[in-house]
Amino acid sequence: MKHIEYEFVVVQPPTIDSTHDDLGLLQELLAAPPPVRSSLHRPAQLRSLKEERKTALQGYRFRGVLDAILVRSERLLIVGVIIFFGYWVVNIYGRDWWYARNNPAAPAVAWEALAPGASAAELDRVLGQQLPVIAPAISAAAPDYLVPAQAFILPPASPTPTPDPMSFVPKRMIVPTMELDSPVREVFLRDGIWEVADYAVGYHHGTALPGKGNSVFAGHAGIRGSVFARLNELQIGQDIYVETADTRYHYQVQTIQQVWPNQVEVMYPTEQAIITMITCTAWDTQRLVVKARLIDQAALSS
């Protein structure tokens, strides 16, 4: 039988420093000087998450108001752009349809042509003081002139009828370089502003008839037909054709220039048979003017 021997070791408990026990701590606190008031902390408060967020974001309140103003301004701007675009579409396309539907053709206006050397007052009265602009006024189509039926008269024979001056008014313009083949409508000076023909080339009433002097034509460059949208592509020497009821006039480009709207001298009458073509350019601040001289003319085949 084995005998088990046990060895016992006596462990001494650690000595407790009197400065770390409760009594020592209490004595240390009592002996310490009272704390300064500024170093005291606020008592803890229990608040809801909403109240805590409101307190934490106190300094950012102005930024939130500014953001709200910007958001509302952005929405108003978008609405304004939509309204403006809608107005533009209605004004450009809807208004043309409404005008054509509700307005009859303009009455005939007596023919009058300026002669070279006309007085300044006469030039202002017939030509105005501004070149054509893309104005809200819409030119009326050239009216149809009905020839009254002649009663059958027994001898003596009726005298030879006087040619109708409207038969010499231009009816068609052809510009091969521009791929333009457009009807021509006579336009008039209304309240100091020249009408601009829609979907056609406008012939200025009061300027010379083709082959007689300075015949002035104008047209839109960006809207309502844009008949002169490619006028800037013309070059010196290129061909232009103007037709009346029975004659074709052949012109060649002579000069190309940009002028200010008040330079109406480009429409003044001349001794030489020319045409002057005008449209807007440079964001409507100037006018592109092309002048062409008459080369020949020939009767149209019936």
Automatic annotation (TrEMBL):
<keyword id="KW-0472">Membrane</keyword>
<keyword id="KW-1133">Transmembrane helix</keyword>
<dbReference type="Pfam" id="PF04203">
    <property type="entry name" value="Sortase"/>
</dbReference>
<keyword id="KW-0378">Hydrolase</keyword>
<keyword id="KW-0812">Transmembrane</keyword>
<feature type="transmembrane region" description="Helical">
    <location>
        <begin position="76"/>
        <end position="94"/>
    </location>
</feature>
<dbReference type="GO" id="GO:0016787">
    <property type="term" value="F:hydrolase activity"/>
</dbReference>
<dbReference type="InterPro" id="IPR023365">
    <property type="entry name" value="Sortase_dom-sf"/>
</dbReference>
<dbReference type="InterPro" id="IPR005754">
    <property type="entry name" value="Sortase"/>
</dbReference>
<protein>
    <submittedName>
        <fullName>Sortase family protein</fullName>
    </submittedName>
</protein>
